[in-house]
Amino acid sequence: MGNIIGIQISCDAIFTLCLNCTVNKATYVRQLKDNLRALQSELEKLIEARNDVMRRVEVAEQRRMKRTDQVQGWLSRVQAAETEVGQLTRDSPQEIDKLCLGGYCSRNYKSSYRFGKLVAETLLVVRTLMGERDFDEVVVEIVEESFVADERPTEPLVVGLQSILEQVWSCL
């Protein structure tokens, strides 16, 4: 009997796919130190930008204005990124100690890969936040109802001159 279905798989294609996958994953480990330095640098720039935006907001809020939701959301995301970078910075010495062969290999490859990928993703988030920092308006004017006076209808009151007013009306 013969084969009805013949499948041919090129070893070249399989090898290339495996190599690409391995090289892409190894990039996170290999660039870990560089990405950590870049992350610290970008975070410092982001904090400076946040401080500039906060200064503009605080000056405007003193003039009874309110920050926009877009600015508030950006400030919240910056705070979250700052917290995450702080955690990564605290964990980085342990992960760097695991590296060997000049940073091209790790004693615990899976852990270093996860950490390196997290650092790279956080770096991308910080760079994205830096790109979003230019706001047209950081505050909007608010009109609260408590500041607007309500007009209430009143009847004309003449106090103490009621009798004279009645005489005038009777003459007319």
Describe, in plain words, how this protein is organized in 3D.
This protein has 172 residues and is mainly α. The chain has a domain of 111 residues. The protein has 5 helices and 4 strands, in the order H-H-E-H-E-E-H-E-H. The strands form 2 sheets. It has a two-stranded antiparallel ribbon. A hairpin with a 4-residue loop joins strand 2 and strand 3. Helix 1 crosses helix 4, helix 2 runs parallel beside helix 4 and helix 3 runs antiparallel to helix 4. It is elongated. The N and C termini lie far apart (129 Å). Keywords: Coiled coil.
Number of strands: 4
Helix content: 55-70%
* Helix-strand string: HHEHEEHEH
Label the overall shape.
Answer: elongated
How would you characterize the largest beta sheet?
2 strands, antiparallel
Approximately what portion of the residues adopt beta-strand conformation? 5-15%
Q: Which structural category fits the helices and strands?
A: mainly alpha
**Spatial strand arrangement across the major sheet:** 1-4
Which ranges are low-confidence, i.e. pLDDT below 50, for 5 or more consecutive residues? none
Mean pLDDT: 76
Count of discrete alpha- or pi-helical segments spanning 4 or more residues: 5
Please give the radius of gyration in angstroms.
34 Å
The end-to-end span amounts to 129 Å
Coiled coil: 29-63
Keywords: Coiled coil
